[in-house]
Design goal:
Blueprint (H helix, E strand, L loop, with lengths): L1 E5 L4 H12 L3 E5 L7 H11 L4 E3 L6 H10 L4 E4 L6 H6 L1 H21 L4 E7 L22 H19 L4 E7 L1 E3 L18 H9 L6 E4 L11 E2 L1 E3 H16 L4 E6 L5 E2 H12 L5 E4 L8 E2 L4 H6 L8 H14 L9
Helix pairs in contact: 1-2, 1-8, 3-5, 5-6, 7-9, 7-11, 9-11
Bound molecules: nicotinamide-adenine-dinucleotide (NAD) and UDP-4-deoxy-4-formamido-beta-L-arabinopyranose.
UDP-4-deoxy-4-formamido-beta-L-arabinopyranose (WQD) binds next to helix 7 and strand 8.
Length: 339
């Protein structure tokens, strides 16, 4: 099949293209490089030995999108393109509503015009807000605590409305838990701008000496050791989940929603210790105040994806840390590190 990947130069998109190539799909990318670099695509091509047709376009620009749909016979869209920084979304909500929501509506309109009605959408465990219990299954009630999360929830609702109005659409909504790690080659990985917001990239930068110490945001949560617990999932497992979700689209099965997580939770301290083992050194940390909006525990019940997509995460936390460490050491300044 020919798959249009929006946001394909980004962290999850780049890893997904490799899995799509392995499954013999033809990949086209639209990305405006607002949070990525073309270098990731170059390296994806080098890893998979296949080429990617790349359009440096903004999904908000419908004329450009139409060009892409005219030039290519697209079967399915995997839609990653979005802004994702929670803190920034609080200070610049309109930037997030415009890019994520108007961007998705723009894409859906063009898809509709070209009768391409198959889409896999990147949602997030953030739509569960502060869950009443863990593990979290897909039927849990939804709520959000910040504008970024609200964009994900609104887009899930928009997709639901689109499907109810026209049930010839095939839509898979994937709720990712916490993607971490990198491709085994160490050639592609997560490349945050400036000081990382997320745990694993921050620990990686402490390990490589770019940050002095990790601040652990709170040690008084009702968890195993008082620090926050999350479901870290290897980005390659997550990427493969999209290949399996494509099969659901091929079955023309309407609207479906799946958690993509491992089902296991690790605390911040457990994750830090796993990384210490991977990099072979002790890492400095201090306990700080809780971060506003954080929750104690969040991990998935991944049974629905296992049963219906025949997908399960296979990589453990040690492998996630080893792969993140390899990427970080080979590319201390991300893609800017050069060849
Ligand atoms: P990323 O920032 O690395 O990738 C997103 C890509 O989309 C970037 O390459 C960016 O340049 C591009 N983009 C953004 N706006 C665009 C626009 N208007 N037009 C064209 N391209 C545009 O992020 P990621 O971590 O790969 O996340 C991919 C998707 O998964 C996002 O939708 C994100 O919200 C979602 N998600 C991410 C996580 C996570 O922790 N990484 C967790 C849950 C969900
Ligand atoms: C993990 C744990 C922190 C940094 C975010 C988004 C979510 C989703 C994934 C997109 C928490 C602790 C972190 C640090 C710390 N993204 N921590 N020191 O908050 O679970 O999820 O990314 O959809 O929407 O909110 O991930 O990696 O930021 O934090 O102690 O420097 O690490 O408090 O317990 P989070 P995270």
């Amino acid at each position: 099949m020919t798959i249009l990947v929006t946001g394909g130069a980004g962290y999850i998109g780049s890893h997904t293209i490799i899995e799509l190539h392995k499954a013999n799909h033809n990949v086209i990318v639209v990305d405006n490089l607002s949070n990525s670099s073309k270098e990731s695509i170059k390296r994806v091509e080098e890893i998979s030995g296949k080429s990617v047709k790349f359009y440096e376009y903004n999904i908000l620009d419908q004329n450009k999108l139409k060009e892409v749909f005219k030039e290519n016979k697209i079967d399915t869209v995997i839609h990653f393109a979005a802004f994702k920084a929670v803190g920034e979304s609080v200070s610049k909500p309109l930037k997030y509503y415009h890019n994520n929501i108007a961007g998705t509506v723009s894409l859906l309109e063009v898809m509709s015009e070209f009768h391409v009605k198959n889409i896999i959408f990147s949602s997030s465990a953030t739509v569960y807000g502060d869950p009443v219990s863990v593990p979290i299954d897909e039927s849990f009630s939804l709520s959000v605590t910040n504008p970024y999360g609200r964009t994900k929830l609104m887009m899930e609702e928009i997709l639901g409305d689109v499907f109810r109005a026209d049930n010839s659409w095939n839509i898979v909504i994937l709720r990712y838990f916490n993607p971490v790690g990198a491709h085994k080659s160490g050639r592609i990985g997560e490349d945050p701008n400036g000081i990382p917001n997320n745990l694993m990239p921050y620990i990686s930068q402490v390990a490589v000496g770019k940050q002095k110490e990790l601040s652990i945001f709170g040690d008084d949560y009702p968890t195993v050791d008082g620090t926050g617990v999350r479901d870290y999932i290897h980005v390659v497992d997550l990427a493969y989940g999209h290949v399996m979700a494509l099969k659901k689209i091929e079955d023309r099965s309407g609207l479906n929603i799946y958690n993509l997580g491992t089902g296991k939770g690790y605390s911040v301290l457990e994750t830090l210790h796993a990384f210490e083992l991977a990099c072979g050194k002790k890492l400095n940390y201090k306990i700080s105040d809780r971060r506003a909006g954080d929750i104690a525990s969040c991990y998935a019940l991944p049974n629905k994806a296992e049963k219906e997509l025949e997908w399960t995460a296979t990589r453990e936390i040690d492998e996630m840390c080893e792969d993140a460490w390899r990427w970080q050491t080979k590319n201390p300044n991300g893609y800017k590190s050069g060849k």
